[in-house]
Design a protein that fits this description.
single chain; 8 helices; six-stranded mixed beta sheet; eight-stranded mixed beta sheet; 288 residues; 23% strand; alpha/beta
């Protein structure tokens, strides 16, 4: 997928990153045989984002269209990517992979809606070297170097136990829900939707899933796969947990729902090709 010596542009379209953590991850990926090029405004800051909208958009346009760039990698997530979508040159995108997750969900949904499929849902650089586990790093490295299928192990949570084939979309639940009512809103007809999130209390998870259902974002969905909901838990002694909540919210869809996939904001964050064909069984999700 990305041969040795490929040039990777580092962009920061969302939150402000820690320079030391970013440098550590760049050094790691360079040991895999890749070469990094910083975007022109990479170290800019503006309030809570890594630069003004214009600076971040200019960097993204450069990264997506420069003939010297083979792939694009998010420095970190946070918030801000959605601000850039209106001005991005989707029609000029040439298939170079874009790597990221969390806030990158906004871009990936927009790309998939417009038929641009070269996106890798995987760790941002900010957390690659010192947060995710080695299995996640190796899964990403393997996908980058070979384009191999990814198997994300899981287990049946609720709904039918059918085998489902469909394109795999989704990402960060909060980000997906925030796009409802916008031109970039996710449409899941015929798709397998994979969702994850971090530090959301149960009532907010309920609100987000309910928003997706009521907005029509999940109309026609073929199956749901749940990654990790890091830091989300029921009150102590409540007698129920997050999976009980998800069962209550998703069982009415009457589609297969699996849980426990190694995708999310924790140490386990295995990479997969966004928008690629997937096969969901009660044991997990194969994305190729």
């Amino acid at each position: 997928m990305l041969p040795e010596g490929a040039q990777i542009a580092v962009v920061a379209p969302a939150g402000i990153f820690d320079p030391g953590r970013l440098a550590k991850s760049i050094q790691l990926v360079e040991s895999w045989g890749y070469v990094f090029t910083p975007s022109p405004n990479l170290r800019a800051t503006h309030r809570y984002t890594a630069g003004t909208v214009a600076e971040r958009r200019d960097d993204f346009i450069w990264a997506l269209t420069s003939p010297d760039v083979d792939a694009v990698w998010f420095a970190r997530g946070g918030y801000g990517t959605v601000q850039l979508l209106d001005g991005l040159p989707f029609s000029e995108m040439d298939g170079r992979p874009v790597i990221g997750f969390s806030d990158a969900t906004a871009l990936f949904i927009a790309m998939e809606k417009l038929g641009v499929r070269e996106a890798i849902h995987g760790p941002v650089l900010h957390s690659l070297a010192d947060h995710v586990d080695d299995d996640s790093r190796q899964a990403l490295k393997r996908l980058m170097q070979t384009g191999a299928e990814a198997f994300l192990s899981g287990r049946h949570l609720c709904g039918p136990r059918d085998t489902i084939v469909g394109r795999v979309i989704g990402g960060n639940l909060c980000m997906v829900a925030s796009l409802a009512g916008t031109p970039w809103a996710m449409r899941a007809n015929g798709a397998i939707v994979l969702l994850e999130d971090v530090n959301e209390p149960p009532y907010k998870l309920d609100r987000l899933i309910t928003q997706l259902r009521q907005s029509g974002a999940l109309d026609g969905v073929s199956a749901v796969a749940l990654g990790e909901f890091t830091g989300s838990r029921a009150p102590e002694g409540a007698g129920w947990d997050i999976e009980d909540l998800m069962t209550e919210l998703l069982e009415p869809l009457n589609v297969p729902v699996i849980a426990g996939l190694p995708v999310g904001h924790g140490q386990r964050n295995h990479a997969w090709k966004y928008g690629a064909a997937g096969v969901l069984t009660e044991d997990g999700l194969l994305v190729g």
